[in-house]
Amino acid sequence: MRKHVLVSADDAETRVALLEADGTVDKEKALQKGPDSKFKVAELYLERRSTTSIVGNVYKGKVDNVVTGLEAAFVDIGLEKNGFLHVDEIVLPGVEIPKRGRGKTASAPGSSIADLLKPGQEITVQVVKDPLKSKGARLSMEIAIPGRFLVYSPQGEGVGVSRRLEDRERERLRRAAKNLDLEQGGVIIRTAAHGAKVEDIGRELPYLYKLAEVLERRVEETVAPAPVFQEADLPVRVVRDIASDDFEKAVVDNKKEYDRLVSFFQRTAPELVDRVELWEDDRSLFDVFGVEKSVQSTLSSRVDLPSGGYLIIDYTEALTVIDVNSGSFVGRGKGARLEDTITKTNLEAADEAVRQMRLRDIGGIIVIDFIDMARARNRDAVLKTLRKALANDKTKTFVVEISPLGLVEMTRQNVTDGVREIMTRPCRVCEGEGVVPSELTIAIGFARKMRELATANADAKALLLQINPRVTAEFTGQGGWMLKGIEAETGKKFFFEGSEGLPTDHIDLLLAGTLEEVQERAVPFRPGEEVHVQLIEPHMFKANDAVAKIDGYIVAVRDGMPFVGTRVMVRIESAGRNEAEAVIVDAGLGPAQTGIQSGNAVS
């Protein structure tokens, strides 16, 4: 799997795209015909000044609170929220702490976290998970300093090899590691070391030792709570993590980021410097290679499959659900069978579901609802395809077998916010719920409020309320039965005004007084008055008539249907509380003659 990195950066944000392909990316072909169909955007990363990831950063912190019931400590690291440190992540010199996993209680007396840490104690911690939603950062006292091929841990011991490598390659690297001059601490050989020579791996050790010395010196000089070590910039992190034999090129459209990548490779892998290329074309790098479309696609809940099926991705607080649908795909050929059609859709969905997980960086519990398959071999084929696709995902995952209901339950490590979370915010109307109360629901609630206002304004004969016209329509529509009932019950007349710009749940008492006082303000027109209006739509009940709306007030224009979408002069024949009836006087007027904009009227 060939890998390419595109980096697009400006003053506001830095975006990085990881492209994967079976063949090479032909830049000239991309410039002439658009993106090469051989490669796809596999992962997207986005950082802004206000949303920079702190994963990998090291802090000198101060223990704020120790909670024995959670076997955890909350550590002040100088951020808005305290970080969370579980007992399994505690490393203390000369103290052996048995690992028992979260949720399990200590089995031996004297092994409580309260015996290990005390409030006010200063400790060095590293962020292993960004603050997400209401939770603070996840911390660890086992410091890890990553390089291209190695991860060095000053408190560790021995040599480990990534489990993501094939058994044969792991064994080769394990043998090669015996030649490493490991003075102190421990190292883990990364997946990126696939095919690397022992000389290349060993060359990294002095560099990592030097970083560890700098880190130790800063810890001694720093007053807690404060940062002591910052992870590399986003482009360097991404390239560093994939810089193996599969890595072919990094294309950067920003000179500053280009220089940083070149500097990184000069220190760690001089042979790869020529794989970093500065994009100097006037066109957008992400547009030319089709990445911009992938960025925007992360905001949609629907993802189409090649055969005509589609996925629906639904995010909840507890988990993410990916629903598979056959859509317009009905099989191929006259002899197509339902089971074959379903299996074909599910196989495509398995590949695309993993791509979307990586693209959107979906973490936590994930449930994929495949279409039910009758045959066990077909279920096995879909699960095999899913696992094969996950093999390219560097994020830790755990997959459970397909259930009898066709569900696959899995977990994917959640480390940082994905592109979707960074680019969006909850809707200010629905607060992220996806639904809002209907106009009828709001109107029923307003009816109770109107009764309260009638009681509070006992001396008034009429009341003028400001509400959204769509809610007004619930009171005045269908013969106005709801409004008539309230007026009969309270003995008062209610008038309405408002615009579409008002929130649907807005209600305000504008005027309470005599019927004449309120009617004078509430009814904008008088019989015989001539006004200019914009006809916006046909009348709902009268086929030949049209409707104009001025701040929610309806003007029904007789025989106005042929003039919908134009501005006309009309004469008001009658004017009620919420609607006036009019006839056309002159249908030949345009904006230049009237001097007004759509939605307003002048007399």
TrEMBL record:
Phylogenetic classification of the source organism: unclassified sequences, metagenomes, ecological metagenomes
Protein name per its UniProtKB record: Unannotated protein
InterPro entries: NA-bd_OB-fold, RNA-bd_AU-1/RNase_E/G, RNase_E/G, S1_domain
Any one Gene Ontology molecular-function term assigned to this protein's record: hydrolase activity
Gene Ontology annotations of biological process type: rRNA processing
Keywords, alphabetical: Hydrolase, Magnesium, Metal-binding, RNA-binding
NCBIfam families the UniProt entry points to: RNaseEG (TIGR00757)
Domain S1 motif, chain residue ranges per copy: 56-142
GO CC annotations on file: cytoplasm
Signal peptide: none
Cofactors named for this entry: Mg(2+)
Annotated organism of origin: freshwater metagenome
